[in-house]
Amino acid sequence: MQKISKRIYSVGVNDHDKVLFEGLWPLPYGVSYNSYLVVDEKVALIDTVEAGFEEEFLENISQAIGDRAIDYLVVNHMEPDHSSLVGYMLERYPKLKIVANAKTVPMLQGYYGTPLEKILVMKEGESVSLGHSTLSFYMIPMVHWPETMVTWLAEEQTVFSGDAFGTFGVVGEDIVDSTMTFELYRDEMIRYYSNIVGKYGTPVQSALNKLAGLPVARICSTHGPVWENNVNDVVRLYDKLSKYEVERGVCIVYGSMYGNTAAAADALAIELESRGIPCAVHDLAGNNAGELGISGALRDAFKYDTLIVGSPTYNNGIFPPVETFMRALKSRLIKDRRFYAFGSYTWAGSSVNQLNALAQEMNFELLGPGTSFAQAYSRDKFNVAAIVDLV
Ligand code: FEO
Fold first, then answer.
1. How far is CA 310 from CA 154, 299, 365, 372, in A?
2. From ligand 1's centre to the CA of 74, what distance in Å?
3. 34 in Cβ contact with 28 (< 8 Å)
4. Does the pLDDT of residue 56 top 80, yes or no?
5. Is the CB of 79 under 6 A from ligand 1?
6. The ligand 1 atom nearest the CA atom of 144
7. Ligand 1 within 6 A of CB of 147
8. Average pLDDT for the chain
9. Euclidean distance between the first and final Cα of the chain, in Å?
10. What residue owns the CA closest to ligand 1's atom 3?
11. Atom of ligand 1 nearest to the CA of 163
12. I need a labelling partner for 83 at 20 to 30 A (CA). Which of 90, 155, 355, 384 fits?
């Protein structure tokens, strides 16, 4: 528990044990499920935490408000990492009213059987008074579920933003960013955005435009630090990512069965490095694959302007983990990337053509026809310098 301001307490928890967020995304630095109390004449709890942390959550709340009742539970977002203790809280605090919006109601009923009479349904811009302060609600659909809203506490210029501006990584004893640099979380915020929210660039832009009308001094997200010192930086990063804007650099992503496509990827990385071009390399398969897998590859595909993708020909197609990566790019509507494909084959090479076809479906700019080489890698078959000249 941490008191953040005159009225706001952080009562969320750190999860050091979960291996895969949403069952998909690795968590080498853990994740936090943030929840906040706003304490005035009435008490509001903003979101809950994931099931399994009941005891710690209640202890945090108790440290903040003792035996006081909670009047409102605001459900900004229904994904179960934030909502799965709704029923539990209703049992503990029988007078509690759930504050939500119309799109949330069927999800509350479907997930938790929440009785209708327990729910106060808010429309865009409507408010709930806590006494000397007011919570107002603004819809930000598809950031990143359709029911998502943010809660605005005008008296403290604070937005409770749901997943928006969230990041992977647990938080320290001080959840507020006053004692640490944003750089500590930047890559994990990009990975979080690209993995979880990446498909919804246009809705994120709509949400940012809506928030631009508010004098935000503090962002209380559901994951990661509370942003006070870095509000402008995190908003700028979200703006950039949701516009699919990039920086100069190359993201090499590949899979390899017997090391020949891998050798070509390594040669490309060495050549790029020798020319001072920023480069990130992601091996998606085998013993040497990076622990972040597709999750890390997506992060750097969102970051850099050029994608070089390698795949051996497998079953006359793309090596499965690489195809999964390409389809993950497509489902995130990623655009405006420069693209080059390469890969080895044994008796018939088709992976490069198929990678190019997928890239064209995403309107990527092909830097060339790609390089497909037979059997073992060698510099004779794979002209590294000529490929990097195209970059
Ligand atoms: Fe952290 Fe969309 O849930």
1. 51, 17, 16, 9
2. 15
3. no
4. yes
5. yes
6. 2
7. no
8. 97
9. 50
10. 79
11. 1
12. 155
Confidence grade of residue 287 (pLDDT, cut at 50, 70, 90) = confident
Ligand 1 atom closest to Cα of residue 196? 2
Domain annotation for the chain: domains and CATH numbers = 2-242 (3.60.15.10), 248-390 (3.40.50.360)
pLDDT surpasses 80 at 92:
yes
Between CA 322 and CA 342 the distance in angstroms is: 12
pLDDT one-digit tens code per residue, 311-329: 999 999 999 999 999 999 9
The residues, any chain, with a CB within 8 Å of residue 274's CB and separated by 6 or more, are none
Q: Is 7 in the pocket of ligand 1 (CB under 6 A)?
A: no
- DSSP-derived secondary structure letter, 226: B
222 lines ligand 1 (CB under 6 A): yes
The amino acid that residue 123 corresponds to is: K
CA of residue 150 relative to chain centroid, distance: 17
Contacts of 78 (CB under 8 A, 6+ apart): 104, 107, 108, 111, 145, 147
**Phi and psi of 8, rounded to 5°?**
-105, 130
Q: Model-level pTM? A: 0.96
- Round to whole Å and give the CA distance between 338 and 368: 10
